[in-house]
From TrEMBL:
InterPro entries: ASHA1/2-like_C, START-like_dom_sf. It comes from Nonomuraea coxensis DSM 45129. This is Activator of Hsp90 ATPase homologue 1/2-like C-terminal domain-containing protein. Residues 29-134 form the Activator of Hsp90 ATPase homologue 1/2-like C-terminal domain. Belongs to the AHA1 family. The lineage of its organism: Bacteria, Bacillati, Actinomycetota, Actinomycetes, Streptosporangiales.
Length: 204
């Protein structure tokens, strides 16, 4: 699998308003039931994303290890679910919705994250601050569905391929910002900041 190709193959959109609304859409060569199971089964989630505790059912509460938690707000197997997505005590709305569509033996996955983002975080990183993380997660799903191994979170950014993947993702989110009307200079600054955060130079 060419990981950079996996990143550039995805479609990204940003709707820039009082609430930030980012969308990633990509295709997986797997049946919809398999993709649904990979996204909703705790044992499979830890193999490509993170260990999760709680109840993965409508109305249940969940917590990803060292990451976000929340409540399962809506669930329509095997096509759609929506969850609240809260990091620590962060205030404000933050919800993630995943939609799956069967397409000729494959599955199109659309992930939408709508959030009220603190102004200082948006000013510094833009949508790439969250978007690159989602790209890396969905890359893990692609590896999992194809029978590959999960990349090492602690070392991936140190490898040449990891840096290429992160750079490609940050640039793609910069392009989404420009398409949403954000000035090119500001989008470029976000790309630089996000790349430095996710893949700092050795010794930085």
């Amino acid at each position: 699998m060419n990981m950079v190709d996996e990143i550039t193959r995805a479609h990204r959109e940003l709707f820039d308003g009082e609430r930030k609304d980012l969308v990633i859409r990509r295709r997986y060569d797997a049946e919809i039931e398999d993709v649904w199971d990979a996204c909703t089964d705790a044992d499979r989630l830890k193999r490509w994303f993170l260990p999760v505790s709680g109840e993965l059912r409508l109305g249940g509460r969940y917590q990803f290890e060292g990451n976000a938690g929340g409540e399962v707000l809506e669930c329509e197997p095997p096509r759609r679910f929506k969850v609240s997505w809260v990091m620590g005590e962060a205030p404000g709305l933050s919800e993630v919705e995943v939609k799956l569509t069967a397409e000729d033996g494959a599955t199109v996955l659309e992930l939408r994250h709508v959030a009220e983002v603190p102004p200082e975080m948006w000013e510094g990183f833009g949508c790439g601050g969250v978007g690159v993380g989602w790209d890396l997660g969905l890359l893990g799903l692609a590896l999992h569905l194809s029978g590959g191994e999960k990349v090492g979170e602690d070392t991936f950014h140190l490898t040449p391929e990891g840096r290429q993947v992160i750079t490609a993702s940050a640039r793609a989110w910069g392009q989404a910002e420009e398409a949403a009307g954000i000035p090119a200079e500001k989008a470029a600054a976000h790309v630089a900041a996000v790349t430095a955060f996710y893949a700092p130079e050795s010794g930085a």
